[in-house]
Design brief:
Layout lengths: L12 H21 L13 H26 L6 H28 L4 H34 L7 H23 L22 H39 L2 H37 L6 H23 L3 H11 L5 H7 L6
Helix pairs in contact: 2-3, 2-8, 2-9, 3-4, 3-5, 3-8, 4-5, 4-6, 6-7, 7-8, 9-10
């Protein structure tokens, strides 16, 4: 006689566990066949990039004012103002380059945009440094050839200098686009990607050479001023004294420019010589940010302290010039 199967109504814990495991296996097999939409990763913005973009905005606004003043004023066509305009244009493009780099890095990410933005930054900052050298050369020649320097020949020389300056800097900016980059070999990247380590070293050495040349010209200017001071001590003539005071102001301005130039650019230059892409990026940002400050300070030193530019700015903004400022503007400029 067969016994009826006994039904365990209560059920043991082991039976429940086995049943739960079976259900979980079935649900897992089904869920593995159904694609699951993963959430998009959130865009994380580097605070250093935000600071660089803000610096680029300030640089662009400042130097755009200087460029507009020089373009709007027909009286500002002397070689000195052409060189100041070249410096302001270079710094303006540098500021735009920092903004474009931020936009391309977070909104339009591609290899082409990286090359274009870094090329613009290299070309503009190179033009800024070269314009500072050209202004130093102009100041030296105006003192060394004080009687014959202000002529049509000087204007022609200035235009030739500007063409060579901008042509060279544009070629430097095109090098990353033409293949001089580290996109194919990440091990050759410098602290500024996608520039190669060799390219960064060449730019750094060129900067050091430019600074040494500016320093040498500054020493020669100081010698000329000392010679003028000796002649003034013998003559004691009012006009000579006035010329000496103006020259001394120009030399002091040049000293401020050189000191600011070295303080802003030297940390990044030395760091790019010894470092590569394996170094922490925070060091690159910490040395590159002060370099951008030079483009912020340049309009204050060169343009806004110049009395002729102050007069032109008042004419543009107010339509009138105070009498005291108009009288001061008739004297030679400080820069």
């Amino acid at each position: 006689m067969n016994e009826d199967p006994k039904v365990n109504l209560s059920g043991s814990p082991r039976d429940y566990l086995d049943a739960a495991a079976a259900v979980e296996n079935v649900s897992g097999s089904v869920s593995s066949q159904v694609p699951v939409a993963e959430p998009d990763p959130e865009l994380v913005v580097n605070p250093w990039d935000i600071v660089l973009c803000a610096s680029g905005t300030l640089i662009s606004c400042e130097n755009a004012i200087v460029v507009l003043i020089i373009l709007h004023s027909p009286s500002l066509r002397a070689p000195m103002f052409l060189l100041i305009g070249s410096l302001a244009l270079a710094d303006l493009l540098a500021g735009v380059g920092l903004i474009v780099h931020f936009v391309f890095a977070y909104l339009l990410q591609s290899e082409a945009t990286k090359l274009v933005s870094i090329g613009l930054i290299v070309a503009s900052f190179s033009a800024s440094v070269c314009s500072l050298l050209a202004i130093t050369v102009d100041r030296y020649l105006s003192l060394y050839y004080a009687l014959t320097y202000h002529s049509e020949r000087t204007v022609t020389l200035t235009y030739v200098m500007l063409v060579l300056l901008w042509g060279t800097c544009i070629c430097l900016g095109l090098l990353p686009v033409l293949g001089w980059n580290c996109l194919r070999d990440e091990s050759t990247c410098s602290v500024v990607r996608p520039l190669t380590k060799n390219n960064a070293a060449i730019l750094s050495v060129s900067f050091l050479f430019t600074f040494a040349l500016m320093l040498q010209l500054y020493v020669q200017i100081c010698k000329i001023v000392m010679r003028h001071a000796h002649q003034i001590a013998l003559q004691r003539h009012f006009l000579a004294t006035s010329h000496y005071v103006t020259t001394r102001k120009g030399v002091s301005t040049l000293a401020i420019i050189l000191g600011t130039f070295a303080a802003c650019w030297m940390p990044f230059t030395l760091y790019s010589l010894i470092a590569d892409s394996t170094y922490p990026s925070i060091y690159t940002y910490a040395t590159l940010l002060p370099a951008t400050y030079n483009s912020i300070i340049n309009p204050v030193i060169y343009a806004f302290r110049n009395q002729e530019i102050q007069k032109a700015l008042c004419l543009i903004c107010c339509g009138c010039v105070p009498a005291s400022l108009s009288q001061r503007a008739r004297s030679p400029s400080d820069v």
